[in-house]
Amino acid sequence: AVSPYSSSIVPRKNVQVTVDNQPVFSGLVDDWNLDYDISGDSTTTAVCVDGFVTLGQVAVGTATRSAELSGTRIASVLTEADWPSSKRALDAGEVSLQADTPDENTNTLAYLQTVTDTEFGAFFMSRTGLATFIDRDGAQDFTNPTVLGGTGIPISSVQIDYGTEQLYNEVTISRENGGTAVVTDSTSQTAYGISEFSKSGLLFDNDTDLDTLADYLLTRYKDPVYRIQQVSVLMDGLGTADRAAVAALDVADPLQVTFTPGVGSAITQYATLD
Predict the structure, then answer these.
(1) Taking the C-alpha atoms of 259, 273, 110 and 14 in order, what is their torsion angle to the nearest 10 degrees?
(2) How many Å apart are CA 29 and CA 46, to the nearest integer?
(3) How do residues 22-40 score in pLDDT, each as one tens digit?
(4) pLDDT tens digits, residue range 190-204?
(5) Helix, strand or coil, per DSSP, at residue 73
(6) pTM of the model
(7) What is the CB-side half-sphere exposure of residue 211 using CA atoms within 13 A?
(8) Longest CA–CA separation in the chain, Å
(9) Three-state SS string across 102-153, please?
(10) Fewest C-beta in 10 Å: which of 34, 54, 83, 236?
(11) Run of H or E including 246
């Protein structure tokens, strides 16, 4: 009780982590782990979660929704969940969703993920705590990436995936109250065997958009390519401007990464922060 922080050591306390006074995480304390040893010292560890923890504990309303763009649908669901309008950053969306009546007890977070999968965009809690939705055009925009490696911000290591983890040569996706799109690539199947990807329950309001997404997914994943899984940056070794640029990165931000293998020339690839 004598500690100035005693009143704040409670679950669901707002918390923010900063680098050079710039937020890199905003959320809630889910649990406090208190450790004491015989020397009299103690350690308190805060286990933190973002705003998804609250959205994951409420159900979507069962009122029928009109056909609307994906961003509009997400906004209305957030309003139902009492998520503040001041803590949102939502794109309008590119995909029109069908009129929909969610089943009773449908989880809000799961429903929002279905909307995001239909859009093929990104929905996440930003580093400043905003419920953020980026549509498919925004998620594929690499016109102004942060440059890591090469002539850009120095990196210490890169992890590359080159295998079957993201290799799909048979794609099956279906929508509610509609059809199923199945596309395959025989050349890829002959070379690597059959590798399937499936997704159901999408909310497209027509089969044309469903077919378009299926074709896109097949084109993107039918062949193995170098896929950047992780890039390490040592913040202590960076100048002020580079530290600020790294700290400002958020989920879905575009990156241009250059690295040089032990043998061979430099490789440059684009990626998004996951």
Answers:
(1) 130
(2) 6
(3) 999 999 999 999 898 888 8
(4) 999 999 999 999 999
(5) helix
(6) 0.91
(7) 4
(8) 71
(9) CCCCCEHHHHHHHHHHHHCCEEEECCCCCEEEECHHHHCCCCCCEEECCCCE
(10) 236
(11) helix 240-247
